[in-house]
Design a protein that fits this description.
The complex is a heterodimer of chains A (111) and B (117). Chain A has 111 residues and is mainly β. Chain A has no helices and 11 strands. Chain A is globular and about 40 Å long. Chain B is mainly β and 117 residues long. Chain B is built from no helices and 11 strands. In chain B, strand 7 and strand 8 form a beta hairpin. Chain B starts with a strand and ends with a strand. The chains are: A mainly beta (111), B mainly beta (117).
């Protein structure tokens, strides 16, 4: 199985400040079609996960542009340019290259 | 609108089976795979497998081989996930999710399954 390792696991952030989450894969997620099969999801308290970023760097419909995804191969990053109170929750990376697996999750909280 | 609506919470005894349903609406049910993901209390997300409603092909995570059965009924746009030989470690919220292209773009609201004697 492909193992995804997120860091940090806990992320306290002051509103208005940037935040960054890393996701490292045990195998390259870059497929022969040139796409990186890595998505980011946010699970707010008491809710189902919601898609933020797909194929490494594409923002899902309705996702604010303060969220961005980057990376390729085995190293990926989710960045929030200016954290808002509504961004609290657990962020997961997920690989869809083979037998989907998720990272452990990063809990973002407001300082 | 496009949505997946799951069945209600279940309480089961160890050794029993549970079946969770996931009713799709707002799109053509046979156009997309339905995946199943679970989340134990306070834990992360774990993939169980998928079903292709168009034909019924399935794929399961190795961990759940022989214990999870996924089916669908296209006449009522509903997918089902049955997990057998339940133990307390199976206590979790079970989600269905639509796989469109390579992403889970729509999720069900989740079904809490509690396994307790």
């Amino acid at each position: 199985d492909i193992v995804l390792t997120q860091s940090p696991l806990s992320l306290p952030v002051t509103p208005g400040e940037p935040a960054s989450i890393s996701c490292r894969s045990s195998q390259s997620l870059l497929y022969t079609d040139g796409k990186n099969y890595l998505d980011w999801y946010l699970q707010k308290p008491g809710q189902s996960p919601k898609l933020l970023i797909y194929l490494g760097s594409n923002r899902a419909s309705g996702v604010p542009d303060r969220f961005s995804g980057s990376g390729s191969g085995t190293d990926f990053t989710l960045k929030i340019s200016r954290v808002e109170a509504e961004d609290v929750g657990v962020y997961y990376c997920m690989q869809a290259l083979q037998a989907e697996t998720f990272g452990q999750g990063t809990k973002l909280e407001i300082k | 609108q496009v949505q997946l609506v799951q069945s209600g919470a279940e309480v089961k005894r160890p050794g029993a089976s549970v079946r969770v349903s996931c009713k799709a609406s707002g799109y053509s049910f046979t156009d997309c795979l339905i995946h199943w993901v679970r989340q134990a209390p306070g834990q992360g997300l774990e993939w169980l497998g998928w079903i292709n409603p168009d034909g019924g092909a399935t794929n399961r995570a190795q961990k759940f081989q022989g214990r999870v059965t996924m089916t669908s009924d296209t006449s009522i746009s509903t997918a089902y996930m049955e997990l057998s030989r339940l133990t307390s470690d199976d206590t979790a919220v079970f989600y269905c999710a639509r796989k469109k292209d390579s992403t889970y773009d729509i999720w069900g609201q989740g079904t809490m399954v509690t396994v307790s004697s």
